[in-house]
Amino acid sequence: MDPREGAGRATLRDVAKAAGVATSTVSRVLSDPGRISPKTAAAVMDAVRKLGYEARPHGPAGLAGKPRAVALLVPDITNPFYFDIIHGTQEQLKAAGYIQLLVDTEESADVEESSLNSMLSSSRGVILAASRLSTDALARAARDIPLVALNRNDAGVPAVLIDPSYGIHQAFQHLVSLDHRRVAYISGPAQSWSSQWRWQVFEEAARNYGIEAVRLGPYAPKQTSGAAAADALLTSRASACLAFNDLLAIGMLARLRTRGVTVPADVSIIGCDDIFGADFCNPPLTTITAPIEQAARVATSMLLNRLDGGSLATRQIAQLPTHLTVRESTGMAAADR
């Protein structure tokens, strides 16, 4: 009996399952078999023949058989930081005649890699926001499907970076003017490339301004992680902190309030990103404002250029600056800290 009867057209995933390999391995065998061991390549091609799979090449020359869709992968769809990214990419894609496929990767590299594999046959390209993949996994993914990374610059792929440098240096100027001398960085996820970048800039700025730098964490980039971060801040004896993102900072404000610690009289808090709601919390949050929607639009334009036949042979990098927005969560350093 023909294995295709009653089952519809065979997919890349069907071939991978039959051959006992990853979907990305099947893609590489079909596009560049010299990169795969002969034994694995033979198993894949045997599955291709048995299932009658018709391979579709990647890249502009092989896009005709795919839906006009682009996948956007984000680590946490409930994080307001990604609202502007979702909106920016969707508007740009809609104007170009594409639909957006939105995937929540749950802050998991495994979920992200699995989702990428499933997108190979259902989308023409991918935008990865704050990817949690390893450097090697991200580089492999870029060989399988056209993609652009947001806030990731270590895998040789086209990228749009929200540069924290200017905003963090402004934050230190602000804190120095308020007599702060020991400042903590509340770090984000251990696998977050942007968290490491922010720490590097933080250390540099602290040295430049003669400030003692303390690193706390890592913490999940959620409001619920703010309680632990606030407790650690009080233990650190730092008089101010810069949190990896606004959600962490807002969670810290709530915890400090329950502990009877007054912000900013007792300790100053600065967030990152200036998400919707950062100016509504109590007190309104001083934060590093990021051009989030603009970054999403630039990333989408870069990907659409590739899908329309443009070349990414020379890797494209776009960097967008940040700046400090001062509100009421920062003040003069307490004399006893």
From TrEMBL:
Cited InterPro entries: HTH_LacI, LacI/GalR-like_sensor, Lambda_DNA-bd_dom_sf, Peripla_BP_I
UniProtKB keywords: DNA-binding, Transcription, Transcription regulation
Top-level taxon: Bacteria
Annotated HTH lacI-type domain residues: 10-65
Bilayer-spanning residue ranges: none
Single GO term (MF): transcription cis-regulatory region binding
Protein name: LacI family transcriptional regulator
Originating species: Arthrobacter wenxiniae
